[in-house]
Amino acid sequence: MLFREFSPARLAREVNVRDLPGYGVLSQKHLAKHYITSLSKSIESGNFTFKPPKRTRTKSFVVYYSEKLGDQLVQRRLIKILRSAYDIRPADRGEIVAQTLQLLQEGVPKYLLRLDIKRFYESINRESLLAQIQADCLISNAAVNLLRLFFDSLEGVIASGVPRGMAISATLSEVVMQSLDRAIRNIEGVYYSARYVDDIIIFHRGGAASVKEAVEKLLPHGISLNPDKCIEIYIGCRCEPTCRCSEATCRCFKKCQCRPKENRNHRLSLLGYRYSLSDVITDRKKQQKVSVTLADRKLKRIKTRISEAFLDFIKNRDYRLLRDRVYFLTENHRLYSPRNRGRLKAGIYYNYPLCSAVESFENLDNYLRSHIFARNNAFGRKLRAGMTSAQRRELASVTFKSGFDARRERVVHTIRAREIRECWTV
Predict the structure, then answer these.
(1) C-beta neighbour count of 159 within 10 angstroms
(2) Which of 143, 350, 382, 405 has the fewest CB atoms in 10 Å of its CB?
(3) Among 353, 367, 356, 231, which Cα is nearest to 299's?
């Protein structure tokens, strides 16, 4: 089993194009073959060890990475073994947000829970996880031993949990959470639940508090909810708490005088979107109106990137780079590399196709124009000194709203994409 799982042929398949520039041993076939064969033999003989991961700060998190090529190849093999054994399939963000919208639009009373797991990766108990994997008997002893060696390499690097930023951590977290996902779906009254990493959304027919308590009891050892980010919502009728009718023959609803009020609307942020809807249902036969915009955190992130792009222009006076950054933010793009040949899509529409209200895009357009035509402060004076009127007009001709509506698209090479992102801290 060990030879098949970690044979030179299997390990060689884990080498990807991104490894080539960073590791000279891959520059020639005979050197690469010798390295991978030696790696396989060291695993087979029991001499293989993982080097402790390095840490760096990216955006607002401390993340970890493996320097050693052999460590990366073995981790990639373990990821594939675990995904196959536990039938792990990545959650589809697009499917979750679309399903949430559809359920919110249904004209039936509903309870909704949006839960957030506190310090997700850092809360995973490594000992419990390894014991669970051993007890499940779904992977070989060789793979279990390598996981143990990986956890041993974390001692002295991170006090608890699995290292944020490493691909194997995402897979290990899914192993931990699988039992919770199944258990939530089996809670009485729950008719839809989904989880995307540490965000959980639940639709329920009964009291939301009881479901939240049930979820808290089901959480794996060491993992807890973040109370500051958990939201409980009821959508139906404000009279419901005092109603004594059975659900099937409710007489109160026909006499209900509750009407939508703007100041009582519910607002739900989920996976980059903000859903806004009335807290009451006036007609159960009609689809309820739900406004979908960008979440406040996403708006703030895009605005920060706009500011950082212009500040970087003041330093380097590279107008083409500034223009490409504005295009990158306001439009859509296909990321091209020899490997994917433009199949990867991203941008203002591809990332947020469900947006139905224009207010987010108008907000961003106004913010962008305030930078392009800044005049009466130090920032504006420095910007005018390095940019012509024609260049200002060119930048002002593109907007977030038109990029979304027209789905304008450009092909951007991954090398240029890295240059574009270089100045962004979020």
Answers:
(1) 8
(2) 405
(3) 367
